[in-house]
Write a structure and sequence with these properties.
Layout (H helix, E strand, L loop, with lengths): L2 E4 L9 H16 L3 E6 L9 H14 L5 E5 L4 H13 L3 E4 L3 H13 L24 E4 L6 E6 L3 E6 L7 E3 L7 H11 L4 E5 L6 H10 L6 E5 L2 E2 L15 H6 L4 H10 L12 H7 L10 E2 L2 H14 L2 H15 L9 H8 L6 H6 L13 H7 L5 H12 L6 H14 L4 H13 L7 H8 L1 H19 L1
Parallel strand pairs: 1-2, 2-3, 9-10, 11-12
Antiparallel strand pairs: 4-5, 5-8, 6-7
Helix pairs in contact: 1-9, 5-6, 8-10, 11-12, 14-17, 15-16, 15-19, 16-17, 16-18
Bound molecules: glutamic acid (GLU).
Length: about 475
Amino acid sequence: MIKTRFAPSPTGYLHVGGARTALYAWLYARRYGGQFVLRIEDTDRERSTPESVQAILDGMEWLGLDYDEGPYYQTERMDRYQQVIDQLLDGGHAYRCYCSKERLQTLRAEQMANKQKPRYDGRCRDLTAAPEEGAPHVIRFRNPTAGEVVFKDEIRGLIVFDNKELDDLVIARTDGTPTYNLTVVVDDWDMGITHIVRGDDHVNNTPRQINILKALAADIPQYAHVPMILGDDGKRLSKRHGAVSVMQYRDDGYLPEALLNYLVRLGWSHGDQEIFSREEMVALFDLGAVSKSAAAFNTSKLQWLNQHYIKEGDPEQTARRLAFHFEQLGVDTSHGPALADIVLAQRERAKTLVEMAQNSRFFFQEFDSYDEKAARKNLKPTIAEPLRALRDAFAALNDWSAQPLHGALIATAERYELKLGKLAQPLRVAISGGSVSPPIDVTLVLLGRETTLNRLDKALAFISAQIA
Ligand code: GLU
């Protein structure tokens, strides 16, 4: 059975690069009926924070990347790492290295001066005893000195490393704590990971990890190294390029479906198809079709996808997302129209859910003042009489629905010899506070009789106050 994992270090928010890696690993597992594991690599205690762990969990949940196992935490597995380090020591695959920092620094400086690649020279490889009882030491993996490490990367193809290029890496520090290359190997082995999907900044770690796995007589998984994401200026994507945190996209009013669709296409394609539902992604994704070269982030394409999913998505589901943004604005939506109806009314003109919530406040809240420009243009003394007549026509309706409302509007406009817009726009300002709203009859229906009539009264009072 296929088993993949996402193994972030909780040293910051979940960024889009990490999210894409997680998505690819998740898709591959789902596509082949396998399992997906979440593992938090929190052994760097200084840089790992609980807030980052939470940000990762929140990001995974928001994107709907569910896991079958985990979250595992490496800090809870320290005894197991110690066990494997002892096993490697006992088997002669690792050794204690007593070289001082100073010695290593001098060695490095010499190698650099001779234009050699800095690497440990293996001085402690064959020591038979400690220089002195209890002397401080690290533990190094005894890397093979001859031969090659060859693996077929699912994305990059055949990759070959000469063992001569790899030195004996430290697997436990002086304080006994295990290093990344050791913990990752133990975990991938224990958790039965068959496919390691990760960023290509780890390519150079792979031969080392394969050698350790071999020393443990463990199965070697398949590897798929995903190329990095660049900003629109060709530089590695970073905060400079704007929002890169997954949760920031939520806060900015993006739908997770849009971000997922955007991320899946960033480095993977299926013909020239652009829109992929979650089900389609699962059915079509394959690691072999992931591009070898870095992809550039393109915010306008993400915006386009967001609008697509706002327009075409399930209104009930979008409504649940929209509720979050009303909360952020401090708008109580427990009274007033159903949020799914707001979505239906607004979805053609909102680029983000933040915009949709902002433009829909008036359905739930009284406004304190009118948009100044809109009021100056539309709430003029000359409109007071037609607006009052319209208010009375509305009040007389038995049926508060689109058709009769529209009928009353047309009849009143005709009576005062006004073009429809000349009455509809003042009405819009009166009931919404501004000059943009969904179609007027939809807006009236959603607002309801009582609120509409109250707001018309308020607008009439506003006009009289101006005259006075
Ligand atoms: N924890 C590592 C990172 O965040 C990933 C390790 C891996 O995927 O092997 O870069």
